Amino acid sequence: MGFGDFLKEISGNMTEEEKIELEKKKAEISKFKEDQKDYVKMSLNIKSGQNSVNAGTYAIMYQRKDGSVYFNKNYYDRFALIDYIWDGPMYETKTTTVSSKKGKEKKKGKSGKMTAGAVIGTMLMPGVGTAVGAAIGAGGKGKKKYEEDGTVDTTQQQVEVMSRSVIKLKNIETGEFASIVINCNSDIDAQIKCFQFNNNFQTTDNAEDIQNIASALKSLKELVDLGVLTQEEFEKKKEQLLK
What residue numbers bound the domain in which 154 lies? Predict the structure, then answer.
């Protein structure tokens, strides 16, 4: 519904025919939105061929229940999915290097403090006090110092990277073929395989071509049998047909 139609509707200036047409448009839009909930869809990063399907670099491809697809909000540009080509996942090796370290703990405490502590402890409590006092006197701040021991741990992991795939389509209205190149990986490949592909367009054309060639060769052979064409002329015609 355009803005002009909206103004007419609220102003009450629409004719009966315009109101009927407007209701039809509303019903079509409502049905379309309802059907769209069940459509298969996915996001694509299109690297080339965007213009052939009226889409941008980043697009959403929808597939209707009848198998036709469109991109973004271009509802009326309908395409048939013909083929999908991908060579499979590509991987790169990711290397992680970690140096092992060991810790050395050093205690700082002066011997003078240790001796003084032992003397005081003996005066207060002979025997046990000597050991306790010595321990108190020896008390110092501990400090850990870490040094590399020269050991290096290296791990390698295969990581999948983006590669290219091709989707071939046919414009249902014009009959023109189109191809788009997209970024692809295993996850995207799995999503694409949820779509229905219809190869009948190419298969039908090829079958008709083969049938026509076979029919033409049969007719030429009959002309040879009747003496109208020589075998040499037949071979030349045959070569032209099979090119």
Answer: 94-159
